[in-house]
Design brief:
Shape: globular
Membrane topology: Multi-pass membrane protein
Number of helices: 15
Distance between the termini: 33 Å
InterPro entries: Na/H_antiporter_dom_sf (IPR023171), NhaA (IPR004670)
Catalytic activity: Na(+)(in) + 2 H(+)(out) = Na(+)(out) + 2 H(+)(in)
Strand content: under 5%
Strand order of the largest sheet: 1-2
Number of domains: 2
Function: Na(+)/H(+) antiporter that extrudes sodium in exchange for external protons.
CATH topology of the largest domain: Na+/H+ antiporter like fold
Number of strands: 2
Family: Belongs to the NhaA Na(+)/H(+) (TC 2.A.33) antiporter family.
Helix content: over 70%
Length: 363
């Protein structure tokens, strides 16, 4: 298990660099007059390229997420209710506080549908950042952040399924349920059943990526570990960077940047990621510790603020929710600017706080 965790952390660190590179390319592409939006709108069969990435390829990403959640619940950090309680409480705090701050700042105005954007933690960027810091961050703190991110993913999946579904078809949903039962009954046929399940979920009105999570949770642990081992590099180094390439491009010309900087939506997202995650995770964790909880072995309390700030790097899932929340391109662009700014600020604050904590330890 320890070896699997270390391998997972290494891949997430490298994936973070790949996502960063794809983001830079997307921004250059979108601002170089090369018709970024036109390319991703190209029709290819029943979907355009953008939807092939967001609906189909991202289902593989969520399949890996589902497999990781299943492994942690059955044979990992979330197996014991006692050890799972603290990161679960921290993650809930890190979801609720950004929502409260976002709603308070946005009011009842334009952009309210994006209330969930600031809830997410990007596991690749966040874990990658603390891994790059090396032994300045304790192993316990890394495990704590990873566990928070996993619980955060569970909450994000529920939010997407419940609040961002449109025109749900009971018939297709029934077909998806039948296919899910068949997958549980015959996991050896998981590939054709997973494809059929994706089609049924897509047609049901629930976002098709949820099919990936369902498959991950239904596969037996032994088979799931084999599938995860094979798919995780593809998810980390192909799927998620492609998602960043297809979604991170914002053309800052034509007043887009100035409009975003004057938009209440942008600053509500920044505040949710930076302030909401920091206060929510730190506050919930401290409350749980006073109630008798305990930090993971080796983690110092002085590292808590740095870990909480780092969790404000929302990026991948935040971008994903922004695309689901808005049809208005101007709102999507403002949301992306807020996600970029909030994630960068959170990352800087996290590094500084963890560096200060490390210095205090060595003095």
């Amino acid at each position: 298990m320890v070896r699997a965790v270390k391998e997972f952390l290494r891949e997430e660190s490298a994936s973070g660099l790949a996502i960063l590179a794809a983001t830079v390319v997307a921004l250059i592409w979108a601002n170089a007059g090369l018709d970024y939006d036109g390319f991703w709108s190209t029709e290819l069969g029943p979907l355009d390229l953008h939807h092939w990435v967001n609906d189909a390829l991202m289902a593989l990403f969520f399949l890996v997420v589902g497999l990781e959640i299943k492994r942690e619940l059955v044979d990992g950090r979330l197996q014991s209710p006692r050890t799972a309680a603290l990161p679960a409480v921290a993650a809930v705090g890190g979801v609720l506080a950004p929502i409260v701050i976002f709603v308070a700042l946005i009011g009842g105005g334009e952009g309210l549908d994006g209330w969930a954007i600031a809830c997410a933690t990007d596991i690749a960027f966040a874990v990658g950042l603390v891994t790059v810091l090396g032994d300045r961050v304790s192993e316990g703190a890394r495990v704590f952040l990873l566990a928070i991110a996993i619980v955060d993913d569970i909450i994000a999946i529920v939010i997407i399924a419940v609040f961002y579904a449109e025109g749900v078809s009971a018939l297709w949903l029934l077909a998806a349920a039948v296919l899910a039962i068949a997958l549980w009954w015959q996991p050896r046929l998981w590939i054709p059943l997973a494809i059929a399940l994706w089609i049924a979920v897509h047609e049901s009105g629930i976002h098709a990526t949820i099919a990936g999570v369902v498959v991950g949770l239904l596969l037996p642990v032994a088979r799931g570990e084999h599938v995860q081992h094979g798919l995780h590099p593809w998810s980390a180094f192909v799927v998620v960077p492609l998602f960043a390439l297809a979604n991170a491009g914002v053309d800052f010309g034509g007043g887009v940047l100035s409009d975003a900087l004057s938009s209440r939506l942008t600053w509500a997202i920044v505040a949710g990621l930076v302030v909401g995650k920091l206060l929510g995770i730190s506050g919930a964790t401290l409350a749980a510790l006073r109630a008798g909880g305990a930090l993971p072995e080796g983690m110092r309390r002085s590292e808590l603020a740095g870990i909480a700030a780092t969790a404000g790097i929302g990026f991948t899932v935040s971008l994903f929710i922004a695309e689901l929340a808005f049809d208005d391109r101007a709102l999507v662009d403002s949301a992306k600017v807020g996600i970029f700014a909030g994630s960068v600020i959170s990352g800087i604050l996290g590094v500084l706080a963890l560096a200060v904590a490390s210095r205090r330890r060595r003095v």
